[in-house]
Design goal:
- The chain is an alpha+beta fold and about 220 residues long.
- It folds into two domains: about 1-75, Pseudouridine synthase, CATH 3.30.2350; about 80-220, Pseudouridine synthase (2-Layer Sandwich).
- It is built from four helices and twelve strands.
- The protein has helices spanning about 30-40, 65-75, 145-155, 205-215, and strands at about 1-5, 10-15, 45, 55-60, 80-85, 95-100, 100-105, 110, 120-130, 135-140, 175-185, 185-190.
- The strands form two sheets. Strands 1, 2, 3, 4, 5, 6, 9, 10, 11 and 12 form a ten-stranded mixed β-sheet that branches. A two-stranded antiparallel sheet has the order 7-8.
- The protein is globular, with a radius of gyration of 17 Å.
- The protein starts with a strand and ends in a 6-residue tail after the last helix.
Amino acid sequence: MYQLLADTDDFLVVDKAAGVPVHGPSVAPSLIEQLREDLHNPALNLAHRLDAGTSGLVLIAKNPTANRNLAQLFAERAICKRYLAISQLKPTKKQGWIIGDMVKVRDGNWMLKHSRLNPAKTYFISAALQPNRRLFVLAPHTGKTHQLRVALRSQHAVIAGDERYGGGAADRLYLHAWQLKFHYQGQDFAFKVWPKSGAFFADEALINLALELEQRLPEGV
C-alpha cells in the first residue's frame, strides 16, 4: 500500500502504490486510514491528494498546526511538484504551458476550457520513449481535481490506462508523483521516488530520459 520515506516532527512523506485511494469510503482501507492505524496517530491528515490510480509521493501532516502550515505552502504555490506520465499518443505540441479553466461535465469528468478566470496551470515537456509511447514530465502550478489527466487529454495525448478520459486499457494509470521540493521551518526538503509498478514504467530508458527532460525544463517552472 505504501512505503514510509520520511518521518519528521511535523510531517510524513510516503510513496503510495497505484490503485490505493488516499481517503474516503472503499472496500479496502484508504491510505490515511491505514497510516493512522499503523502509526497510532489519529491526528494524521492529508496535506494534498492523489487520485487512486496515481502512484508516488504523498505529504501527510502529523498535527493540526503542521496541517495549516503545509496547506498555506500549497496555497502559496511554494511546494514544487513533478510528475511522470506515459501516453501512447503524440501530443499536439511537445512542450509548453497548458492553461485554462476546468469545468465539471457528466459522470464526474472534467473538461479544460479556453477561458482563464480561475485557470489550471501545467507546464510539460515530453519525448519519445518507444514507438507509440511517450514520456511526459509534468510541472503543475495549481492543484485541481484531475488536472494533469485533463491537461494531457486537451493535447490529444490521454495518459495510458486512463479509460475515464478515453485512454486505452493498460495494467495501471501511467501517472506518478515523482518529486516534492519545499522549504519548511527553516529547512529545505526534497524527495524523489521512481515508479515501482507498470510494464511501461519498467522501460530501461525511462530514468535517463526523465532526468534529461527535467534538465530541459525552463528556469522557474
